[in-house]
C-alpha cells in the first residue's frame, strides 16, 4: 500500500511520460536548495510537505485552504493527528525560529536552562528593539551599542554557542530581514514577536509566539497550535491612485475589530491579489496581528517569484513553481467566514486614535476629529516600521515629497523615516529617495523599531499634553509610541502620513484638497507613484550578520550575578497537589488590558533579560476598578495603597498567592511572554477573565500563561465578573481531577462572610495539564530528558 501511494504522489508532482522526465530532472537539480544563503547545510523539503498534504486530504476527503495545506503539511503525525478546526490541538514541526533582541534574551535564557547543546532547527536573533530614536540613525545606533553592550554580547555569544545566526544592531527590523532572507512560500516559521505574520506576504505561515514556544521548537519538540479556523478575504478589482495595500488591512480591522480574528488564520485570495506587490502583501499580513489573527497569508504568485529573484533566491522560486499546487488554495475549499473587498472601490483609510480598529476613510477624518475634539494639528508624521518600510513604500512617499519640494514646500509637521533594513537604507540612499525625504524635512532614523514600539525620546510635547501624530505603524494603543497618554495616534499608509505631514493638519484630504505654495499658488498633490522593486539590484549595505561557528561548544556565555540587565532563571515551583485556596485578588482590571498595560515596553525593554527587574512593571498600566486609577491598589494585609508590583511582592513575601481578574480580550497586543512570566514570578497563580486575546491566552496556540504554570480561566457566565470584589479571597477547587474540557470551580469568599461559587472554563489539554503540575513547560521538558 505504501509503495503504490508513493507512486501516485510522484505522478501528481512530476507528471507522466516526457513531462515527468523533464520536471524530474529539473527537481533533481534543485532538490537540495538551501533554506537561505546563510544556511547551506539546510534544504527546503517541499516533497515532505506534499506527502503530508496528500495524507490529510485523503483523510478529510475535501478541498483544503492554503492555510490548511501549509499547517497540516507540517504535522508531526499527519496520519494520526485529530483535525477539527477551532477545537483540536495540532502537533507541528515548524521549519525555523526567529527572535528579536528584546524577547530573545528570555528565550535564550530558557534554552540555556534546558541543558541542550544546540538548536534543532535553523534559528536567528535580530537586534532591532533596543535602539531608541533620539537624534538620527548613526548617532542613535552608536548610543544603543554603548548602552546595550552587555545584552548584545550575551546574545552574540549565546547565539554562537548554540548554533543560532545573529543579526547585529543596525541590520534592520526582524520582519523585514525575514522577508528578505528567510521567508519563502510554504515555510512554517515561528517568531518571538507578534508581527511575525509579516512573512505571509511571501506565502509563508509565520506565527508570533512567546519565548517558551520558541524553546520547544529549538529543542526539537513538536509545537502545539490550536487548529485554526480560516477566514477568507476575497479581493477583487485593482489598487490604484491613493489607495495602498495598507488600506486593505485598515478596512479589515474595521470590519473584524481587534478580536474578530481570534483563533483564525486570515487567508487572502481572489483576482485582486495580483494587483498587490509582495511587500504590500506583507504589510497586510503584518497588521493582521491587530485583529487577533493567528497569522495571515497570501497564495503564491508571480509577484512573490519576482521578489525572491530580486533578493537572490531565484532557485527557491524555481522549486516553488514545481509545487505551486501546494502553495495555493484548492478550488472549492471552504472558509469559516468570508469577507469581500473590491480594491477598485476601496478608499484610503486612517485608523484611531487609541485602537487600531477604529477605521475612518481619510475623506471623513477631519469632520470626525472636529466632532470628537481630537487635535487637528499634526505634530509628527512617522513613516517606516516593520509594517511599511519597503522600497515601494519609500518610493511612493518620496514621490509626494518631491512634488512638495518642487513647489517650494516642506513638511509643516515633524517628519521621521525608519528604514526597515540595512538593505533598504542603502538602496534608498543610492537611488535618491533618502535625500528627497530628508530635504522635505525628514529625519532618517536607525534601521530599527524605534517609535513604533515606544523607543522614542520625544521632546516636542510634555507628558499629558493633548496632541496628534500620524504613523504608518501597526499599533496605536494609549501611550504606546511616546509614553504620553494624551497623544492621539493614528495609523495609515506612508503616503497619507507624508501628505498629512506636508499639510500639517488631520483634516487634509489629498484626493480633493489643495496646498498653498510660498508664492500663494494653489496646487493639488498627484497620486503617489513608486517602483515595486529597484531597477538595479538591491544594495546590501554593510555586512551585519554573524554566522554561528561550526563548533560552538567552547564559546563562553557570561551572565554576571550583579547585572541589572540579565539574570539566569530559577525553576518555578511545582504544583503542590492540592486546590489553590484563599488567594488574594491582586487587582480587578477594568476595561481594555493589553500586553502594554500588563508589561509595558519602551524604557522597560532594557530589563527584558532580567525577570526580577522587569517584574516591576507588572500591570502598572491597568485600570483598577476600585478607584479608576492605574498602579494604585489596596494591600489587603496592611490596608495601605501601593503600586501593583509592590503589593504583589508583599503578598509573595508573606506566603499569600493571588489572582488577577480581567475583562474582555485580556492580553491583546504583542507576543511578549513577560506578561506571563511576571505574574508567575511575583506569586500569581491564575488569571480569571471574561475572554482572552489570541496572543496571550486562548484560541489557536499554546498559551504563554500555561507555559509558565499559570491557570488562564474564563468565566462560564461573564456576569460572574461582577461578583468578585477587590477584598475577596478566591479558592480554585477540583484541581485533583483537573482534566481537558472539565470546568473548575471558584469559591469566592467575601469579607462580609458570604460566599459565591462560580464555574470557570479552561482550554488545557493533557500535555498542558502536565505543564501546570510540573510548574512550567520548561520544568516538564527537563523531567522528560
Annotation field: number of helices: 25
Quote the beta fraction.
15-25%
**Structural class by SSE content:** alpha/beta
Strand order, largest beta sheet: 13-12-18-17-14-15-16
CA(first)-CA(last) distance:
36 Å
| Helix content bin | 25-40%
Using only C-alpha atoms, the radius of gyration works out to 26 Å
Using the alpha-carbon principal axes, give the shape.
globular
The quaternary structure here is single chain
Uncertain residue ranges:
1-27, 695-702
Q: How many strands appear in the DSSP assignment? A: 32
Give the averaged pLDDT, no decimals.
93
Largest sheet: 7 strands, mixed
Cofactor: [4Fe-4S] cluster
Enzyme class: lyase
Keywords: 4Fe-4S, Iron, Iron-sulfur, Lyase, Metal-binding, Mitochondrion, Transit peptide, Tricarboxylic acid cycle
InterPro entries: Acnase/IPM_dHydase_lsu_aba_1/3, Acoase/IPM_deHydtase_lsu_aba, Aconitase/3IPM_dehydase_swvl, Aconitase/IPM_isomerase, Aconitase_4Fe-4S_BS, Aconitase_4Fe-4S_dom, Aconitase_dom2, Aconitase_mito-like
